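Next up, sample data.

:::
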Amino acid sequence: MCQSCGCGAGSKPEVETIKVLENLLAENDRLAGHVRHHFDDHGVFAINLMSSPGAGKTSLLEATIEALAGDIRIGVVEGDLETENDADRIRRHGVPAAQITTGVACHLDARMVHDALEALPLEDLDLVFVENVGNLVCPADFDVGTHANVVLLSVTEGDDKPEKYPVIFRVADLVMITKTDLLPYLEEFDPARAEASLAKVRGDGAPMRVSRKTGDGMDAWTGWLKAQVADHRKHHPKDGKAHTHAHHAHGDHEHGHHDHERGSAA
């Protein structure tokens, strides 16, 4: 496991490990506030997209880019341990993508996203997706400076995943069941059981169901995105007066982490 979040530090004394993690998360939250402020300055709504590996994050992004072409200008930050494969897929759609290769880290953090934004033309964008590393554990603990968290649950996974990994589903503003076109072939996954599992973790509210292959659910998804972008624009209009982004966030850029209004929970 990664060495940056503490999950590989089990051999160290417990008290020391807790102190290190608390300091790490506090600094991450401080920088996440700076990143979010920078998105706001540019009138950009940002989403942290999380899931297990293979749940369909990149495929969903490709379908979203196609569906919103001409309406919403999209940029993507891609997170993977190695390769630029996913970023290359996004770029083929004419969308700017910044690749973060974490090496051993099993999640993205605010510093990684902060530095990756140098490669995106935020002044020309309305919506930025941060596609996190495929993992249902560590990404839930690290605020990356986005305005909303979206978590995917694929029908190729167990329908009890929300109860087994409650933290990431609890922090989600929206949960989506993906690859629903495979439901007729996967009797082991019961959408009703998945929704019951989610309800135990998050309370009432059904997840969206979507299939990139058939297009089912895409209208609801893109409608949600348009509503979030429009609402954000009311409070942070893209007026061309965005502040210049310094490469490092020091002293006068310490805006701190604060609560933001998020979209309706699924």
